[in-house]
From TrEMBL:
It is a single-pass type I membrane protein. It comes from Triticum aestivum. One of its GO terms (molecular function) is ATP binding. It comes from the Eukaryota. PANTHER family: CALCIUM BINDING EGF DOMAIN CONTAINING PROTEIN, EXPRESSED, WALL-ASSOCIATED RECEPTOR KINASE-LIKE 21. Pfam families: GUB_WAK_bind (PF13947), PK_Tyr_Ser-Thr (PF07714). This is Protein kinase domain-containing protein.
Amino acid sequence: MRLVLLLVWLWSLAPTAMNTKVASAAPDPPSAPSLAHCPKTCGDVSISYPFGVGPGCFRRGFDLICDTTTKPPKIFLGNTTTQVISLFPSGTVLASIMYTIPMVPGVGTYNLSWESPGRNLNIATYNYLGFLGCGIGVYLYHPDTGDLVGHCTIKCASMASLLLVTEGGGICNGMGCCTVTFPVAFRGFRVTIVKNNETVPQPFANITIKAFLSFRPYMFRIADLLSDKINASTVGASSAAYLSTVITDKPNCAKARSDDKARYACGSSNCVNVTNGGYSCTCSGSSDDGNPYILDDCKQEYNHTPKMNCSRSCGSTNIPFPFGFEPGCYATRRFQLNCASNRTLIGRPPVKYEVTNISLDDGLLYVNKLSEFEDANMNYLSIYYGGSGYFGQQLVYGLDKSDLSEEFGVWRWSAANLTCENAKNDSAYACRSANSECIGVTHGKLYIGYRCKCSPGFEGNPYVQSGCTDIDECLLPNSCNGTCYNLKGSFRCCPHGMFFDPVGKQCTPDKRQNLILGVSTGIGSGFGVLALALGAIILVRRLKRGAQRKIRRAFFRKNKGLLLEQLISSTSESVTHSTRIFSLEELEKATNNFDPTRVLGHGGHGTVYKGILSDQRVVAIKKSKMVEQSEIDQFVNEVSILSQIIHRNVVKLFGCCLESEVPLLVYEFISNGTLHDLLHGDQGAKCLLTWDDRIRVALEAAGALAYLHSSAAMPIFHRDVKSANILLDDTFTTKVSDFGASRSISIDQTHVVTIVQGTFGYLDPEYYYTGQLTEKSDVYSFGVILVELLTRKKPIFLNSLGEQQNLCHYFLGRLKDETVMDIIDSQVVDEASQSEIDEIASVAVMCLRTRGGQRPKMKEVELRLQLLRARRRPRRTHEQELRRDGDTKPSLSTPMKSRSTSVAMAKNVELGVVAVNSSSQALTRCYSMEQEMAASSEFPR
């Protein structure tokens, strides 16, 4: 295996390399016509001088290579592997710089370095170097002096500690990943990575190191750490850095202008000294944003008339002239915007914002900070264009300066930096409508320029010919108590009995007033009689509705509506707003008066109907079977519990209805049925759930139960965990449902004594005999579900003799006899490895221990399943590669003697740091208690 990542510094060879390209470089500064033959794009990247592809198209040291063998083509800096993502006329480069470094046994030090071919690009200080790895130290050295300028270390204490990082937002803090920042702008970097003398736990030993240069914040993921290469959708999406162009053939502007005018890059544009040597070129503020490295490109004429068929929207944002996207659609380039992914963008790196609204009347631009600049400082006072020009001053930083999550900006803008008096004499005067006027724009004592506004009484766009149109004030709220007549730019109000004379432009008496008054009286009398008749009809209907309301109110009180309101209002405000009380009329309409064809199933506590609400949401409506008062209490209990739960793997409650004799519960509709149906529907056919699906379903169900036990506002014990209460939506996402038997307890309680409820086959034997409900009761039931996923057998099933058999008793007996592989589902045997079957079996054995105190917590079970799924992903990728090379999948039909490892692991399982001894006595006791329960399995729940 070849050791990667010692990039050799080529600075000593740079002069030689550049001399070979002198003949192919363009004259400085070139004119736009002299570059007309040059390629303008490579794939999706626009090419701007001084960079270029081909002879005569680039300044010395700025040549690019366009690789047309890829789709789309990719562009690189010279003969390097540094890919260019974007190029900007100002000289800014967005580049992808990333590396993967395999850890080699016996090698403790790795070196990494980078610089641009001609040392003509600066790495700005808002970029950083990010690293993924375990048990390493990273040291950043100055590329010229060799001084140490930054370092960080990475540890991987345990899977649990890494999970805490991801749950805390994924911020790189030295656990799994770390970052090193640049104290000043560098022309390159040199990094040494040293392996620390510390023990790294599996599976993190000798893990591949990933390194990348970026300006965007990176959110750590365990999957990125475990992968052998940089993930393009996560780390790769973050690994892009902004580099600024530097002309390095002279140390500063003065030397460049005096020593070698023929090679002076700026021409008629501004020259700016660079702090670490060299200079760069910029356009002045009054010259907009042309290319400062092309002769006279900073100058631009004002476009008064936009071309036809210009795009005037991006997403939900309207784009009025003088702004625009395409050439010919904006007045000058300073008003050019970009539309990307339905977002309107303005600005240049590193200051870039999304435009949400443009106000011509107020001369304001509303912007939001882009997500990729979330770490940027909102105290930027302007969008920077050129050397000293500003687009506009930012006036407001946010609604609440302490709430950085809602940062936004409002900028004043001007058409040009001129006074109104001077602008009116300028050929580029922007106010083109005859009904417009010029207004000066200031910010405090700072004069920004002028803008245009429609004259009073007109509205529209003052920047285009005939853009300001008359406002019909009579259609708007006004102070006229008589008859309103609209005029151009104003309106006239005439008292009653008078009308407006357009010739004399005044109000005159109306001789038709008496006739109009008589007709009006007759019409009014007719409407009066009609109103009385309608009033009588409405009164009768209101009386009927009042009676219905009384009946529904009585049902509301009977169904413990006041108690339910109290329980819901006692929860958080967000839950209160999301839980709605539906009217009976709305639910009858949604279910077609509870048509039997809409029945989805009959649960332990009622019948479930499919319904479609008025907002077209498809919902499941549970109609409880109320016979006794205790069942009403169970209904109230289910609504109260569901209203407190907000979890992606728990069925979502929309609300309830208490206006009928039988209360109704409305929750989200789950389209793919239950886990029980998918596992046990047609035993002769192949199950729709693959082994990967079964692990994911088990993991998501475990996460939901762990949330109920420990993360909810009050611990909640489900008390009826079974495969029939695990639903799967259209994306096969797990949803835990049916909380009619659930109990919530205070945080300081460990158990509660209740009447035994549940389903035989899933019922915790300790709970069955003692009546003490604990979180470990749900753990036992979850263990039965794990056995179902392994064997595809029901909790109470018929054996080969036609006798009812308890799955727990049967499974543990097979484990003891070392014949458990004979009852594993054939699809699982085909798709899973022996170690994965052993792992799930061992977790199931821990969950099925007779004594609740010896069972793990649901959070521990979830962590075991997470680790199993994380280990399976790389193995599955390896198997797919083997199959592509013609290899076959290894057989799982090993001798039964090898299965003894599974039994040994199941009897001596260790989860976290607590080891639990499963003696033969404990297993024997589980058999006897389950046998007693199996005798009663024929009774309903």
